[in-house]
Amino acid sequence: MTYQVLARKWRPQSFSSLIGQEAIVTALRNALTEGRIAQAYLFSGIRGVGKTTAARVLAKALNCEKGPAADPCNECIACIEITRGSDLDVQEVDAATYSKVEQVRDLTESLKYGPARDRYKVVVLDEIHRLSRQAFDALLKIVEEPPAHLVFIFATTEIDAVPATILSRCQEFHFRRVPSLLLSGHLRSICEAEAIAASDTALRLIARAGEGSVRDSVALLDQLATFGSGTIADEDAIRLLGGLDTALFHELLAAIVAGDAPAVVGFVSRIQDEGWDPRHVYGQFLSFCRDALHLGLGGAPEQIDLPGEEAVALAELARGAGYENLLRLLHQLLASEQVVRRSEAGVLALEIAWLRAAELPKLARVEDILAGVQSAAAPASARPPRTAPGPPPPPPSRNSAPPPSPPARTEPAAPPPASSAPAGEPVQAFIEAVSRRKAPFAALLAQADVTVRDGELRITVPSEDVLLETRLQQPAYRLVVEESVAAVFGPGVAWRSVRGEPKKKAEPPPAEPDRARAAENPQVQAVLDIFGGRVETVEEHGSLREEP
Ligand SMILES: [Zn+2]
Q1: 412 falls within a domain
Q2: Cα 71 to averaged position of ligand 1 atoms, centre (Å)
Q3: CA 415 – CA 42 distance, rounded (Å)
């Protein structure tokens, strides 16, 4: 298979090229130089971090014609044969295929005799934890009283499964996961030597996906290079390897919600240290927050694209944070998205955006915000007197705005029915909220008469609109409505659909200049900021427009 080729080709043949295990390399080299040779070594650690590679280099160092030496020459017969795996005195055994007692007995029997040619007989026993109990017992005899010429090197990914009787006889070295920065540097040198084109982002993703395993990372690099015929595209790397793990996002969200700025700063440096693309991370965190918002609304954890346990944990975090705060947070993060995307100093922009999010005061229900916006947007005559707290709205810009032209529709809107909220911003925000979830459905809803009445949202379905009526009976669409109602009016606000008269022809939208001018109005902007909507229609409600 192609993807094994690079890993084999780039397998280190000396201690100095073993990546990320400096402490072990130093200890082994010192011991070799000083002639302190243990009779049994135990190398533990996850797969692909260099355990069997180090075992082979150690075997060479012990048996090199110019040794025992801290660095084998890689040129003598012993070195060459050990590299090839053909040295009779160096045996590599995989315990997984060697777990019968008889096999271990045969092995230990053969080890009583001295080496055929080399200085030491070396037995590398890989995955030693897979030996049976009896096989361990058979092995223990010779490990307890080994002949002078014999060196055992055991390797295991599960140190806890190795019996204490064996452990106590071994000099143990724990191989750590290789940090991703070091790994991506290693991948970079392979790419340069192999003429593979890959960006730093792609290499970081690969290193990250390798989870500290050199072998896995190199194998992934090989796979992706083969896939792209020698070029690794960022999109392929992102698509095939996924992104940051969600546990990190969970902690970050918890820190932001708790207003824990030092923790947020810690995450930012971690992202920087691990070499993540801040734009990519920012986008991923946004969708994570969106999942949190859905869960905060009572969405089922199974609907979220997260492993079960993580989704349940996120649902708990979301409930604790409160729906309003999550909505506010998401809004704030969305508002900064373009800044992070365009910024040259991506990490700095990301840090500022997250810190600002962490500083958000814990609010204030959405209904209250809505009420505030509505009163601010009301006709000037209905506004509270200037002595009321809060600054007056800024005057409209004199530089850019052309003199106001007559509005497209001059007749005042019909007075709303008693105890009914005026159709307008909240309803529009509701349609927008639906649109973000299911745009075609929002287009259908926009044809219906949507009003807020007696504390509930009412969707009056035109009698001939069979499609909308059907949709409103389907659970998936009902959920969209529920989420959107909760998103705009807060949780617990009821909604229902009623069948109405055949629909009237929709009014044409007003001319573009009116909408553009309306969108510049500070109060309208406040609404747009909060709900992320756009101006669809402009209606005249009084004397708000001119304040000489
Ligand atoms: Zn040699």
Answers
A1: no
A2: 9
A3: 84
Instruction: Produce one character per residue of 418-440: b if its CB has 16 or more CB atoms within 10 Å, e if not.
Output: eeebbebbbbbbbbbbbbbbbee
Domain range for residue 518?
512-548
Residues 20/51, Cβ–Cβ less than 8 Å: no
- Is residue 444 domain-shared with residue 516, that is, in the same domain? no
Give, as one character, the DSSP assignment of residue 42.
E
Compute the distance from residue 64 Cα to the ligand 1 centre, in Å: 4
First to last CA, the chain: 79
> Are 470 and 342 in a shared domain?
no
Same domain, 19 and 158: yes
For 134-155, the pLDDT digits (tens) are 888 888 888 888 888 899 999 9
Please tell me whether residues 141 and 259 are part of one structural domain.
no
Between 541 and 2, name the one with better pLDDT.
Answer: 541
Residue 318 amino acid letter: A
Locate 425 and state its tokens: 């911003």
Contact in structure between 203 and 187 (CB atoms under 8 Å): yes
Query: Residue 75 C-alpha to ligand 1 middle, in angstroms?
Result: 5
- CA pair distance 294, 321, nearest whole angstrom: 13
- 427, 452 in Cβ contact below 8 A? yes
- Tell me how far the alpha carbon of residue 78 lies from the centroid of ligand 1, in angstroms: 6
Please, where are the H alpha helices in 65-110?
77-84, 101-110
HSE at residue 370, side-chain half, CA atoms within 13 A, is 20
Is 125 found in the same domain as 219? no
Distance (Å) from CA 515 to ligand 1 centroid: 82
Say how many domains are in the chain. Answer: 5
| Best-predicted range by mean pLDDT (46-50, 198-202, 295-299) | 46-50
For residue 408, give both structure tokens. 């497209």
Same domain, 442 and 473: yes
Kindly give the distance from the C-alpha atom of residue 88 to the centroid of ligand 1, in angstroms, as a whole number. 15
Ligand 1 centre and the CA of 3: distance in Å?
A: 29
The two beta strands, 171-174 and 40-44, are: parallel
- What six digits make up the tokens of 479? 């959920």
Domain shared by 235 and 317, yes or no: no
Distance 108 CA to ligand 1 centre (A): 27
Residues 41 and 90 in one domain: yes
User: Residue 399: its pLDDT value, please?
Assistant: 41
Q: Please give the distance, rounded to the nearest whole angstrom, from the Cα atom of residue 76 to the centre of ligand 1.
A: 4
Comparing 511 with 57, which gets the higher pLDDT?
Answer: 57
Q: How far is the CA of 90 from the centre of ligand 1 (A)?
A: 14
Contact 292, 314 (CB under 8 A): yes
Average pLDDT over residues 95-102: 78
- Please give the distance, rounded to the nearest whole angstrom, from the Cα atom of residue 66 to the centre of ligand 1: 6
Q: 73 C-alpha to center of ligand 1: Å?
A: 4
Task: Kindly indicate the confidence band of residue 482, based on its pLDDT and cuts at 50, 70 and 90.
Answer: confident
